[in-house]
Amino acid sequence: MTWCSALLAGKARHDDERYPPLTWLGGRHAASLRHRPQSRELDYFPRVWAARALLYAWEPEAEPRVIAALADPSWRVREMAAKVARLRGIAAAQAALERLVSDPVLRVRVAAERALDALVELQLT
User: Fold this and answer.
1) pLDDT score of 97 more than 70
2) Exposure string (b/e) for 66-80, b if CB count within 10 Å is 16 or more?
3) Count: domains in the chain
4) 8 A C-beta contact, residue 22 and residue 67
């Protein structure tokens, strides 16, 4: 999952030949974007898909990148990073999640609140 960490941090491009095709993460949507190299969606969807992959295949080394993604300019990336923080119980993400509770995008606020609730539950057990 080093590839996902690199994508999430913007350290790897979507068309980097050192890594598998982006369709591994984004499926049909990634395939359709591949034919539109000027697509604005290519600016953020690889990071969304990378974060989503970390829901299923985790590496602890990705934790700082997930926390950094909570401040991403794209709301979709912030939302997915909050979901990863929730599932993976990333306690160090608490301050960043608290800032997202006032995010302008409702979906991000909800994901942040759920992640914070999950972190509280983990602390209680």
Assistant:
1) yes
2) bbebbebebbbbbbb
3) 1
4) no
